[in-house]
Amino acid sequence: MRASDFLRSAARYAARDLRPDLIAGLALAAVALPSQMATAHLAGFPPTTGLIAFAAGSIGFAAIGANHFLAARADSTIAPIFAGGLATLAASGSHDYFALCASFALMAGGILVCCGLFRLGWIADLVSRPVTIGFLAGIAVHIVISQLPPLLGIAAPEGRLLQKAFVIAGKLGETNRVSLWLGALCLRRDSLRGMDQPAHSRRAFGHHGGDYRGLLVWA
What we know:
Strand content: under 5%
Radius of gyration: 20 Å
Helix content: 55-70%
Distance between the termini: 42 Å
């Protein structure tokens, strides 16, 4: 969608479209806002950064995007990669950390723009599904371990992934029971919600037969 297409679409906007658009917007916000704040936390940023990224992505994609159903927002898959890479260059929360993350984001955006201009999407087909699933599984483990300290109510450890896991295991006796119960209730609610998904969606991960060698990347 070009900018001119967006302007023509806005000019044809009718009052009858306002109500369904408001409902859709509220539904999207209810899902996206908490996840965006969590994504910002994974990247070592304050929650407001995730909200700003979501707003900027939504407005930008509405103006130039071609898909009317796609939500543009910060990606929780990339956030731990950013945090892990930046942790070796600057202290989390420092001015240099924020500046480097902005540079990384601009570099990634520039690469994606070039890939789009030169139609290089076929490169993704060269990455096998087992490798992709293993990589995503490694990110999932990274996210779980990084979120265990707030779930257990203990101080977040420093170091690499396995070091953090061992430190957390050694502090299990310091677990805050209130924090743990609240987290368990939230996980229970989410698991019940997941049971409402179609059976083929729940079995999709197992059917792919993923290669878990990607887990070693995060260790």
